[in-house]
Design a protein that fits this description.
The complex is a heterodimer of chains A (440) and B (509).
Chain A: H1 35-48, E1 57-58, H2 71-77, H3 80-83, H4 95-112, E2 116-117, H5 124-139, E3 143-147, H6 152-165, E4 168-172, E5 174-175, E6 178-179, E7 189-196, H7 207-215, E8 219-224, E9 242-246, E10 262-266, E11 279-283, E12 289-293, H8 300-303, H9 316-352, E13 359-360, E14 369-373, H10 378-386, E15 390-391, E16 394-395, H11 396-399, E17 414-418, H12 425-438
Parallel strand pairs in A: 1-15, 3-4, 3-7, 7-8, 8-9
Antiparallel strand pairs in A: 2-10, 5-6, 9-10, 11-12, 13-14, 14-17, 16-17
Helix pairs in contact in A: 2-9, 4-9, 5-6, 9-12, 10-12
Chain B: H1 25-28, H2 48-51, H3 69-80, H4 103-109, H5 112-115, H6 127-144, E1 148-150, H7 156-173, E2 180-184, H8 190-197, E3 201-205, H9 215-221, E4 226-232, H10 244-253, E5 257-262, H11 274-277, E6 281-284, H12 286-289, E7 304-306, E8 318-321, E9 327-330, H13 346-381, E10 398-401, H14 403-409, H15 413-422, E11 429-430, E12 439-442, H16 450-469, H17 471-476, H18 488-493, H19 499-508
Parallel strand pairs in B: 2-3, 2-4, 4-5, 5-6
Antiparallel strand pairs in B: 1-7, 6-7, 8-9, 10-12, 11-12
Helix pairs in contact in B: 4-13, 6-13, 7-8, 13-16
Classes of the chains: A alpha/beta (440), B alpha/beta (509).
Chain lengths: 440, 509
């Protein structure tokens, strides 16, 4: 090949790069290893992860849940046609991914009760950032009222990106687990943002948030648990303009937090401001039903500095997997999973009454997650429980960087716990015993 | 015939199998069918009414679909037959680095010891993950010549915006208000979009006749209000910015920072490092350079590495090594905050580390050498058919132009791209970069063999011959793919983004 180019050494291909910046000695990395040798290095990492779900029974949630992912979903989702494809820029050879995304958009639209869904964003947190950008694009305002019931990490991410957009982020504190909307002046608000159920598991009545949005001509943005959406009122039914969510529960493993799946849906009148890709139906030149990425004029590669979002790569594989997982669950299965999560969580809640010193943080109705206090620091309690093979939940102090408007007192001692449909009664009973021991 | 002389003969990509229309899962739904099976838990049953107050209960059941497992497998397998992929054949999509994704890296990520870890697991219980992240950060810094890196950004564009927020934090910490970021006209569209979201204004500078940054034009655009410049090097025309040290000096002179868009990092691995060229901020696309599979459009991962003076602004928390050899989470003093809900696309990060370990320093250098060799071979091989926009040694990709074919036969770059699909190859990137007329951007990557490149070249020659003999057939191409050319205008004019909208639209018609 070199001879064809009239060269006698590979290095001549780089002759035009100034000598002054060239690496003289190559990279200061070890030489390449064989795959079995690297596998051994990775075995070291996996062994050091004592917290993996095969060793500890997972009761942690906060947007990342230990749901059933059956073999059929894993296998279909790892087909190399889906895994090793690029963005469907050539629809004639990408109908597989495009149709799967069309089905995914349909599912997200139904779960959200809103007309339009996009083809995915990075995760729930960044989807919320895009929702705020959509709101300010819609009404030209930049004041964002965000309930402290929204996942603490999502609020932290929103604050980070507000450095660039200049959005004013106003957090609205919780009282007994419920957003105290009356405590803020909502005038000039661009968006009213709440979570449903909120990150502490509480189902808040969203009509007050909706009233506030209507009264101030702001968009209502709801961050919802998509599993709960299987039985609860949809975002659309509450009158939301935008729905965002974390789609990890649909077929994606815990994965140490990523890649996850940013769900995004909105009302039809906002479609021109929709971030990311959207797949639409059309026909081919032989009049056959076909799918294609559409409304491309919104996207960054065409609008450049006038684009309202810079999203290009998204989480297509997780979206395709979500469509497969929902296809596996079906209409009845989704309902059943939601119901069983709620049943397990309520069973644990009732059993915790027998643990001295453990008390719920809120008296409000919850769905599949709740927070409780003990007399000891949460981090310490969780470490002790781990010694008995239980991942007992999350430290809310850690989640909130030491506290925010979501918890009124003793945040150091608050644990957030969730029970998925995979947890058995003996496992829940074991949790209670282990906790009793840990707080003694 | 040239190809017959090659050992191994002619490599060919296979056409897709899926020529039958596939109904949607909603159309396939049959009441009463189901696939799901859940664990027996013995948890006491309670009614929804008992747990959820009426105001919260959904009014109508949400319809998903009712399918058997066999239905489900058939459906998604048939869809997969309608989808081109790297595993099937060459994917010379310029700027996207669609190299082969080693299966070993996927296997590593499938281990429950990695993917079965909850992201909020206490640090003492996920030491392996923290060590993996620290190790990856260290190696990415060696590769780029930088001091520290955040692994949180989920994709290249997320990395860009993170980098711009770091730029902003740096200037603000110096009490320095700056307004503009300079971008060459050859840049990816994500660059200007990210600049706007970072709260800056874009100043576009024109490329010179050699396809490079025009140093005089740059100097004229510089001033004390310039926060920095975003550059891709090699740039999107596949050419190395030879005056990079002069560019860096000029930008630093006015107090600006240099941002390196890592989209084309594959070209320079082990040859030259962004840090040594004077860049202050670098994002990488692990799904390009480090071979993590692109998943049909994502997930990616877009870590951002910075020079020492910017490290204190990086997003947190970051995995960090303690003196005793154990690991913990640490948030830099003046951190801009989180840019991801958890720790970034962790499973993508794990795959990239496995790829780096297998290749090592020597292997990564070979990656760049071979990627550049392949691109130059293809450029030279197609000289008579599709001349290069800039006729000299390119880096990992070559931008060819169909403007001669357009002038002669009214055949456009898009027609050639579509006809390549009939030949069993994926198309190159078309009409980008914007500064080249009828651009066809080929990036063969280092993983395609000489046999494959030869087959690709012959396919392009056949298409060029058709341009002369039967140009109309190219305008109708592709016909042998699962669907023929789709009506994009119709999709945009009348948006149907869900099955429910499709039904409404049928009802109205």
């Amino acid at each position: 090949m070199l001879a064809f180019l009239g060269l006698d050494s590979l290095t001549h291909l780089f002759d035009h790069i100034p000598e002054a910046v060239r690496l003289a000695q190559g990279l200061a990395l070890e030489p390449g290893k064989t795959e079995p040798d690297v596998a051994e290095i990775f075995e070291g990492y996996t062994k050091a992860n004592r917290g993996q779900s095969s060793l500890l029974t997972c009761f942690a949630g906060a947007g990342a849940y230990d749901h059933e992912v059956p073999a059929v979903v894993k296998m279909l989702g790892s087909r190399s046609e889906f895994v090793t494809a690029y963005t469907p820029y050539q629809p004639e050879v990408a109908q597989g991914v495009l149709q799967a995304l069309f089905e995914y958009q349909t599912l997200v639209s139904r779960l959200s009760g809103l007309e339009i869904a996009n083809a995915s964003l990075y995760d729930g947190a960044t989807a919320l950032v895009e929702a705020l950008n959509m709101a300010s694009g819609a009404n030209g305002r930049s004041r964002m009222l965000i309930s402290a019931g929204v996942h603490p990490h999502w609020r932290q991410v929103v604050r980070t990106f507000a450095r660039g957009t200049g959005h004013e982020i106003v957090e609205v504190a919780l009282r007994d687990g419920i957003t105290d909307w009356s405590s803020v002046d909502a005038s000039g608000a661009s968006a009213i943002v709440a979570a449903y159920p909120n990150y502490l598991g509480v189902m808040e009545d969203m009509s007050s948030a909706k009233q506030l949005a209507v009264a101030n001509d702001a968009l209502l943005v709801l961050g919802s648990d998509p599993v709960a959406a299987g039985v609860l009122k949809t975002a659309g039914a509450w009158g939301a303009d935008v729905f965002v969510g974390e789609g990890q529960p649909f077929g994606t493993a815990l994965s140490f937090g990523g890649p996850y799946l940013g769900l995004f849906a909105c009302t039809a009148d906002q479609v021109r401001r929709l971030p990311g890709r959207i797949v639409g139906e059309t026909v081919d030149s032989n009049d056959r039903r076909s799918f294609v990425t559409t409304l491309r004029a919104r996207e960054q590669d065409i609008r450049r500095e006038k684009a309202t979002s810079n999203v290009c790569t998204n989480q297509t594989l997780m979206a395709v997997t979500a469509a497969i997982q929902l296809g596996w669950l079906g209409t009845q299965g989704l309902r059943e999973v939601a119901l069983r999560c709620a049943q397990g969580t309520h069973y644990l809640f009732d059993e915790l009454r027998s643990v001295e010193g453990a008390s719920p943080v809120s008296s409000q109705p919850f769905f599949r997650e709740f927070a409780f206090r003990t007399d000891h620091p949460a981090a310490q309690v969780l470490e002790r429980m781990a010694n008995d093979s239980v991942l007992g939940g999350l430290s809310v102090a850690q989640l909130t960087n030491g506290g925010d408007g979501s918890i009124e007192a003793d945040i150091e001692n608050v644990i957030l716990v969730s029970v998925s449909e995979r947890r058995t009664r003996p496992q829940i009973d074991h949790y209670v015993e282990v906790l009793r021991k840990a707080v003694r | 015939m040239r190809s017959k002389a090659l050992p191994g003969g002619r490599a060919a990509s296979a056409p897709l199998l899926g020529h039958e229309m596939e109904p949607t899962m909603f159309e396939m739904s049959v009441p009463g069918r189901s696939a799901y099976q859940l664990r027996t838990t013995d948890v006491p049953e309670r009614s929804l009414e008992d747990m959820v107050p009426a105001v919260h209960r959904g009014e109508a059941q949400i319809e998903i679909a009712e399918l058997s497992e066999r239905d489900l497998v058939g459906h998604f397998t048939r869809l997969s037959h309608r989808q081109f992929s790297v595993d099937l054949g060459a994917y010379p999509l310029g700027s996207c680095t669609m190299k082969y994704n080693p299966k070993f890296c996927d296997a590593v990520a499938a281990d429950i010891g990695l993917n079965g870890v909850h992201p909020a697991t206490p640090a003492s219980l996920c030491q392996g993950w923290l060590e993996l992240l620290v190790t990856l950060e260290e190696k990415l810094c060696v590769i780029t010549g930088m001091s520290a890196a955040t692994l949180q950004p989920a994709a290249g564009a997320a990395g860009e915006l993170t980098g711009l927020l770091l730029m902003r934090a740096f200037h603000e910490a110096n009490g320095d208000v700056r307004r503009r970021v300079i971008i060459p006209d050859s840049a990816h569209g994500t660059n200007p979009a990210s600049v706007t979201l970072g709260g800056y204004e874009v100043t576009t500078i024109k490329s010179n006749e050699r396809g490079l940054v025009d140093l005089e034009e740059l100097k004229a655009a510089l001033g004390p209000d310039v926060a920095g410049i975003m550059l891709t090097n090699p740039n999107t025309v596949g050419l190395f910015e030879e005056q990079i040290t002069e560019i860096a000096a000029a930008v630093h002179e006015v107090g600006g920072l240099l941002y390196y868009d890592g989209a084309n990092l594959n070209a320079i691995l082990g040859v030259v490092r962004p840090g040594d060229m004077g860049f202050d901020i670098v994002h990488m696309n692990l799904h390009k350079t480090f071979a993590t599979p692109h998943g049909g459009g994502g997930p990616g991962a877009g870590p951002v590495a910075v020079s020492a003076r910017l490290a204190r602004f990086l997003p947190g928390p970051m995995a960090a090594r303690r003196d005793d050899g154990s690991f913990e989470w640490r948030t830099p003093e003046e951190s801009i905050g989180r840019v991801h809900g958890w720790h970034g696309n962790a499973m993508v990060l794990a795959r990239a580390l496995a790829y780096i370990d297998v290749h090592g320093g020597d292997g990564l250098t070979r990656v760049a050498e071979r990627a550049v060799l392949n691109a130059n071979w293809l450029r030279e091989r197609l000289r008579a058919t599709l001349p290069a926009a800039y006729d000299r040694v390119c880096m990992h990709e070559c931008v060819l132009s169909a403007s001669a074919l357009k002038a002669k036969y009214a055949v456009r770059g898009l027609d050639i791209a579509k006809a390549l699909l009939e030949e069993g190859f994926h198309s190159p990137t078309v009409y980008f970069p914007l500064i080249v007329d009828e651009a066809l951007m080929f990036e063969p990557t280092e993983t395609e063999s000489l046999q494959t490149l030869e087959a690709l070249a012959e396919a392009i020659e056949r298409i060029a011959a058709r341009a002369a003999s039967d140009p109309d057939s190219l305008k109708r191409a592709p016909q042998t793919t699962p669907v023929s050319r789709v009506d994009e205008a119709r999709a945009a004019r009348h948006l149907i983004a869900t099955e429910d909208a499709a039904h409404r639209s049928q009802y109205q018609a």
